[in-house]
Design brief:
Number of strands: 0
Order of helices and strands: HHHH
Helix content: over 70%
Shape: flat
Strand content: under 5%
Number of helices: 4
Oligomer: single chain
Radius of gyration: 28 Å
Length: 101
């Protein structure tokens, strides 16, 4: 039975490798005869940068939840809540900064 399973698995791998290779050969023409504008690379770089930035923002927004998910002690991760004094100090600093302009 084990030999039969090995043979089926081997045949399945050969089938998928052959299928994938055939698909790649058909999907990629030998000559494109097309002009690629230099600005196209800029668009590609912007797309890649946007994906990384969006991923970073998503991780940053949900960092506490991710940290809590992977921590063993679920009660050790506390949310940071600013006190009324911290809020007032930040507001005063913002007012001072705006007055200086």
């Amino acid at each position: 039975m084990k030999n039969l399973m090995k043979q089926i698995t081997k045949n399945r791998r050969i089938f998928w490798v052959t299928y994938f290779t055939f698909f790649l050969i058909l999907a990629m023409p030998t000559h494109a005869w097309a002009y690629v504008d230099p600005a196209t690379l800029t668009y590609v770089v912007q797309i890649i940068a946007g994906v990384f930035i969006a991923g970073g923002v998503a991780v940053g927004v949900y960092w506490r939840k991710i940290k809590k998910l992977f921590s063993k002690d679920k009660t050790s991760v506390k949310k940071h809540e600013s006190t009324e004094q911290e809020r007032n100090a930040a507001a005063a600093a913002a007012e001072e900064f705006n007055e200086d302009k």
